[in-house]
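Worked example 4.2. Below are the chains of a multi-component assembly; read each line carefully before continuing.
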Amino acid sequence: NAGVTQTPKFQVLKTGQSMTLQCAQDMNHEYMSWYRQDPGMGLRLIHYSVGAGITDQGEVPNGYNVSRSTTEDFPLRLLSAAPSQTSVYFCASSYGVRTSGANVLTFGAGSRLTVL
Amino acid sequence: DQQVKQNSPSLSVQEGRISILNCDYTNSMFDYFLWYKKYPAEGPTFLISISSIKDKNEDGRFTVFLNKSAKHLSLHIVPSQPGDSAVYFCAASDTGGGADGLTFGKGTHLIIQP
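Applying the procedure described above to all two chains together yields the following structure tokens:
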């Protein structure tokens, strides 16, 4: 099993450019989410999805879009990149709290994004 | 306002001794608490969890203690090994809150010295 796969691992953008971070999981997990990790800030929830066709905002959603057309994929789109979006992004998935109680997330390896 | 706090950015412990990582929370609606471990250039990996109806959960060298009245939990690692050197994140969830996301602390960098 591949688990949670994120691409690309590294990306450099110029301010104003758009891009999509890809996330795919092969564990048939209902729940998927995106976090960003910044120095001294821990992990902060950007967007999440509890199933195909359902998405919602987390703590820091501004500047990002998501969609969930299949169970397996949950791409994160940056519409117009800003230097404040320089971060490491982690995609995560789980069976969700309705199945397992505690939301035990499986994380991808991360995508490091730099916006100049 | 930070709902999950890890007040020690780093902790240095000698190999073989006990490592104790602390976490405080403010939201009384949290009902599950989890610890994640993260190595550089990798994603966090799940370590151990505890339900709010328990006060202790043990898994091998790792034990998590929960004190609900103090809104405090701790992770004990005994004995500490060099491979335990990593950043440890405390996380909490409110399963009735609807968001399903975890709220993370800022992390504690544990360094195991030989």
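Take a moment to check your reading of the output against the notes. Chain B touches chain A through 27 residues (CB under 8 Å). Residues 7 and 19 of chain B are 15 Å apart (CA to CA).
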